[in-house]
Amino acid sequence: MTTDDAWTDRLEANRDEKDRFFAEHPQSPVPPEEREDFDGLAYFDPDPDYRVEATVAVHETPDSVDMETSDGRTVRYLHVATLSFDLDGEARELHGFRQAADESRTLFVPFRDKTTGQQTYEGGRYMELEPDRDLEDGDEITLDFNLAYSPFCAYSDTFSCPYPPESNWLETAVTAGERIE
Prior knowledge:
Layout: H1 3-24, E1 42-43, E2 51-68, E3 74-87, E4 90-99, E5 107-111, E6 125-129, E7 140-144, E8 178-179
């Protein structure tokens, strides 16, 4: 088995697990009355070209960013890192965020791209990166757009989800991760 085969198998297993959660779990964003007809999320085919290495720039004094949400509120995040990477032959950047009270290492990376509102959810998609240690300037971290997902508000109005700030709008089509039917 090649490295790509093992990666694809893990990705497919992750997708199967998520589909089961959406179909069966009490905390699923799919409304209870729609779960019986739920037959899984739609995804772009796995594509290793959308698995890229990003160089991290850590912001020791993060700027506050107010993100609008799907229910009209705003939520304050801290811009804690900038991720620089090449995609489709171009240098690109995405910002990584945390909420002020969040003590975890998880980076929240919401983004929009040229598929937003057409092939993917109109409010954008998310990635969460979970480094195993505190990041430092110059560290490399993998951005796997195949793991990009639609927020829960894509499935139910009972959820409030932040919209990606304009700084995280990519000028390319990212045909990886979750998509709409």
